[in-house]
Design brief:
Blueprint: E1 25-28, E2 34-39, E3 47-53, H1 54-59, E4 66-71, E5 81-83, E6 92-97, E7 101-105, E8 112-117, E9 121-122, E10 128-130, E11 139-146, E12 155-161, E13 174-176, E14 185-187, E15 196-204, E16 215-216, H2 222-226, H3 230-235, E17 239-247, E18 250-259, H4 264-267, H5 274-284, H6 289-296, H7 346-353, H8 392-397, H9 406-412, H10 418-436, H11 463-482, H12 488-493, E19 507-508, E20 515-517, E21 531-541, E22 548-549, H13 551-561, H14 579-594, E23 619-628, H15 634-639
Antiparallel strand pairs: 1-2, 2-3, 3-4, 5-6, 6-7, 7-8, 9-11, 10-11, 11-12, 12-13, 14-15, 15-17, 16-22, 17-18, 19-21, 20-21, 21-23
Helix pairs in contact: 9-10, 13-14
Length: 673
């Protein structure tokens, strides 16, 4: 593509016809020839690392591309680090292929220099180059996730590879239970062998690096697997994350730069209850009422035409039906715009944002993807309801009041129906009362669930108001009877629920280490030459509610499966079950026996139960931290005629962000900076 005009110069499919998630690089031979690197394939689809001359690509000669590496089962998705490890002046290609290996490929001859493999692992991380040992060849910090494959990993490992040989310089590797997909970065220091590598780990409290095999119950989709709370599922403990700084002089796992357990308060300080926000949006946008009922009250789907957001039939009473006459303070009298982003009043925001957060406490088998089946009708989702986490009774009693609903609609669009005209007269009477009342205003209509009784105890200021109140109360009561208020299923579902998520810490998703930045210290500060800043973001979210089978659960299941003939016994509770139903039932029993299931009272986000009015969001926090590196053995260093190495000025840093300083994967020799 032309950078000047945006015109497409050449557009060709990749040679193997595979998908591509790879960010391409351009590097140059000594004669000035420019080459393009690109990768194909994915997590579960084979692919290759390709190279082609830029001139050939511009001409559209994609057939001249050369495959440098090919894997039939998994692709090449992660960008490499480009650094000269042979000393010939041409950048070499240090690339993590997704399937367990890191390769060093000669950038001139395309021959493999070395290959380091950790069996049963995958890697999403671009290696971070730096001088870990004392030679003049850059070394590389790498990360691997171990397990049957995305997103099920048993543990993660981190090590540094010698740039000359590809052998690990940290053995055994640093191990954490959950693992992080973030790529590392490097702080360049004076001299050789002094560089500091920054990397993430994610682990479980009191089970650091423990790992262990597990699998998800059959039918758990990949999206929810990737959002699982692995520490609570496996160890009934809390997860945490850290950034470590490690070098030749800082023993593994390194010095702690960031620790999530110390930042819980600040990382939850600006959280917004988006469940309440969703309700407020519906309150100010009644045109979305049926959409709200369709997602949050699925039992109404047969009584409403969900394609028509304005109820028109007599049998479909509006949730915004009952006027409430009281002196409680409302949020606003204005109806918001019919579209666009809802921005609640400051009083609402204050009630959402400022929450007190208590101290939080929480009480090698392969998973065959081909066996995944739907959840409906299985023992794994018995007892679930379609309700969202709202305390409807309490919330509606205190909800902000707005003047809209069915009467407002019919006032704008008159009907010849007799009952409609009665409603229109009632609406006009309410308006007349509002103009003549002492307070000049009548509190508008509150959002109501038509199954609940009209609020009692509301102050009625005159008989006219009382008569209107009684008439609509009577009509609402009829509707309650019509919707089957005494139905046992309804009683079972009518739990009292709070609005919004429970008080929980959520999970962090670690995708990027961040970036170095110049120190904000004054240049005459004694620590200025020993300091650099690091900027990074953390983000937590609410997990999916998943179920995991641990080895003890698997043993229980296998034992019960060996006794499957019991389902043919008329006296057995499994009688008349088929094979699948029996397997689901005994899996449920084994998980309940081991207490590995997550508690029902938690807050979870489910792809299967998506509700746009009840999306539980987390919070992102951006940090800027100062790193200061000094020598603890200063006297010993001075006696040896040496001095403590300083952090190089920011314009001499060699790999201070993801994919290098310019996000192009180039790491240049120190003399070239």
């Amino acid at each position: 593509m032309s950078g000047k005009t945006g015109k497409v110069i050449s557009w060709k499919g990749v040679p193997d016809g595979r998908e591509s998630y790879y960010s391409p690089q351009v590097y140059t031979w000594l004669d000035g020839t420019q080459l393009v690197l690109f990768g194909t394939g994915g997590e579960t689809h084979g692919g290759s690392l390709w190279v082609i001359k830029l001139d050939d690509l511009i001409k559209g000669d994609i057939d001249k591309a050369i495959a440098l590496f090919t894997d039939k089962f998994k692709g090449v998705m992660t960008p490499p680090a480009l650094a000269d490890v042979t000393g010939d002046g041409v950048e070499d290609i240090i690339v993590p292929v997704f399937n367990a290996s890191v390769l060093a490929i000669n950038g001139q001859t395309f021959k493999v220099i070395w290959n380091y493999t950790q069996p049963m692992s995958e890697s999403y991380s671009t290696p971070s180059p730096g001088f870990y040992n004392d030679d003049d060849v850059p070394d590389f910090l790498i990360k691997f996730a171990h397990g049957p494959g995305f997103p099920v990993y048993y543990h993660s490992t981190t090590t540094i590879l010698d740039g000359k040989t590809g052998k690990p310089l940290i053995a055994p590797p640093i191990r954490d239970t959950v693992g992080a997909q973030a790529s590392p970065i490097t702080v360049s220091m004076e001299g050789r062998g002094n560089d500091v590598f920054l990397y993430w780990v994610a682990d479980c409290l009191d089970h650091e690096g423990q790992g262990g095999e597990f699998k998800f119950v059959e039918g758990t989709n990949v999206h929810e697997q990737s959002r699982s709370d692995f520490c609570r599922l496996r160890f009934k403990t809390n997860g945490y994350s850290k950034i470590y700084a490690i070098s030749q002089h800082i023993p593994p796992p390194g010095s702690t730069v960031y620790y999530s357990e110390e930042r819980v308060e600040v990382e939850h300080s600006s959280w917004i209850n988006t469940t309440k926000e969703g309700l407020e949006y519906v309150l100010s946008h009644p045109e979305y009422l049926d959409e709200y009922r369709r997602f949050s009250h699925p039992e109404y789907t047969e009584k409403l035409d969900i394609n028509n957001i304005i109820p028109k039939e007599e049998g479909s009473e509006s949730l915004f039906e009952t006027p409430i006459f009281d002196n409680t303070e409302r949020t606003t009298y204005k109806k918001g715009p019919s579209s666009g982003v809802f921005r609640p009043q400051s009083s609402i925001l204050n009630s959402m944002k400022h929450n007190d957060y208590p101290d939080y406490t929480y009480p090698d088998t392969y998973y065959d993807q081909d066996q995944v089946r739907g959840r409906q009708g299985t023992a794994f989702n018995r007892g679930r309801t379609g309700y969202s986490d709202y305390d409807y009774d309490n919330y509606y009693q205190n909800a902000p009041k707005y003047q809209y609903g069915r009467d407002k609609y019919r006032e704008r669009y008159p009907s010849n129906n007799r009952k409609d005209k009665v409603r229109q007269r009632n609406a006009l009477n309410v308006k007349k009362i509002s103009k003549s009342a002492d307070n000049n205003k009548v509190k508008p209509i509150a959002m109501r669930d038509t199954r609940t009784k009209t609020r009692t105890g509301a102050k009625v200021e005159n008989s006219a108001k009382s008569n209107i109140f009684k008439k609509i109360h009577k009509r609402s009561s009829k509707q309650l009877h019509k919707f089957g208020r005494n139905n046992s299923e309804h009683k079972r579902r009518r739990k009292r629920r709070h609005v919004g998520p429970h008080d929980e810490k959520g999970l962090q998703r670690l995708l990027s280490t961040g970036s170095l930045a110049p120190s904000l210290l004054p240049k005459d500060h004694p620590l200025y030459n020993h300091s650099v800043d690091v900027v990074f973001a953390t983000y937590w979210f609410f997990p999916a509610k998943t179920r995991a089978i641990l080895p003890e659960d698997q043993h229980c299941i296998e034992k019960k499966m060996s006794e499957e003939t019991i389902r043919f016994d008329p006296k057995s509770k499994y009688y008349k079950m088929d094979h699948d139903a029996y397997e689901h039932a005994i899996t449920d029993e084994c998980l309940q026996k081991s207490s590995h299931d997550l508690p029902d009272e938690g807050t979870y986000e489910s792809q299967d139960k998506y509700d746009p009015f009840n999306v539980h969001m987390g919070q992102m926090t951006v940090y800027r931290l100062r790193l200061t590196c000094t020598c603890s053995n200063q006297t010993e260093i001075e006696m040896a005629g040496k001095r403590c190495g300083q952090i190089l000025p920011f314009n001499q840093q060699q790999w201070y962000a993801y994919m290098g300083n310019n996000a192009d994967s180039h790491w240049m020799p120190r003399g070239d900076i």
